[in-house]
Amino acid sequence: MAFSPAPDHPAVPARSAGAVDAGSERRSGLLLGLGAYGMWGLLPLYFALLAPAGPVEIVAVRVLWSVVFCVLLIAAGRQWRALGAVLRNRAAMLKLSLAALLIAGNWLAFTFAVLAGHALEASLGYFINPLIVVLLGVVFLKERLNRVQWTAMGIGLAAVLVLTFAYGAPPWIALILAGTFGLYGLVKKKVGTNVGALAGLTVETAALAPLAAVAMVWLGATGAATAATHGPAHFWLLAAGGVITALPLILFSGAARRLPLSVVGMLQYVAPVMQFLLALLVFHEEMPAERWAGFGLIWVALLLLSADMVRGVRASARPRRRRDSVTAGHAPSA
Question: Where in the numbering of this chain does the EamA domain appear (predicted)?
C-alpha cells in the first residue's frame, strides 16, 4: 500500500476501498444473521397464534406453502438451472431427502413442544445442539477433541443428568431437537457447498410435500383440520409458514458468506436465548432451582466451546496475517 503524507504531518495510512467494503460486508452480514436468528427466536410466538391448529397440521401446511414460496423465489431469481442441476444429481437428491425427513422431525418436535407448554425444553434443545454437533463430529467424521472440548462435553453430560432429575425423566424433547438438527447439519455437510440454500430447501420441501398432502387429507377426513374452517385470517397465518420457513434460511445463507465463522458461532445462541426468554416471561413456564442448575451447566459448557472456537480461529488467522505481511513487504510500490 502506498502512503501520501502531507508536509509536516505524520504518515497516516490511507483507508483502502477494500477495507471499507469489508466493513460494509461485515455489517450487512451481521444484520442478516440477526434477522435470521431473530425470526427463529420468535417462532414460539408465531405457533401460539395458530391455535387451534395442531403440530401435524402446522408442519404439513408449513411444508406445502414452503414449496410454493421457494418455487416463486426460484422463478424470480431465474435459478431453474441451479435447481435442475440438483435434481439430476442422484447422490445429492438422496442426501437431501434424508435431510428433509430429519428437518421434518425437528419441526414436528419443536411445534409439539411449544404447543404443549414445553418451550423451555425446546430452547434447551438448541442450547445442547453445539455439543451434539461436536459429538457427531467425533463419531462420524473421526474428529479429535482437545482438553477444553472434552471438558465441555463432560459438563454437558452432567447438565443432562441434572435436568433428568429436574424433569423426572430425560429431557427427550430437547435431545430429539438437538439430535435431529445436528444430524440434519451433518447430512447437509455431506451434500457440500455446490447446492445453494434455496435450491436445497426447494428439494427438501418438495420431497416432504406428498407426506404433507396425505397428512392434510387425513386431518380433513377426521375433522381435525383447521385451515379451511376458522376463517381467512387463520388460513393466511398458516400459509405464512412458507415465508417464515424460507426467509430466515436465505438471510442466514447471506450472513454465512459475509461473516467469520466465530461470529456466526456466537450468533447461533440468539434464537435459543429468545425462546428461553419467551417461555419464561410470556408463556410463564416454571423454572425451579434444579432446572436453573441444569441450564447453567449447559451455558458453562457453551462458554468453553465458544472460547475454544474463538481461540482456534485466531490461531489459524495468525499464519495468514504473517503471510500477507510478507507478501505486502515484497509487493512493488505504487
Answer: 28-164
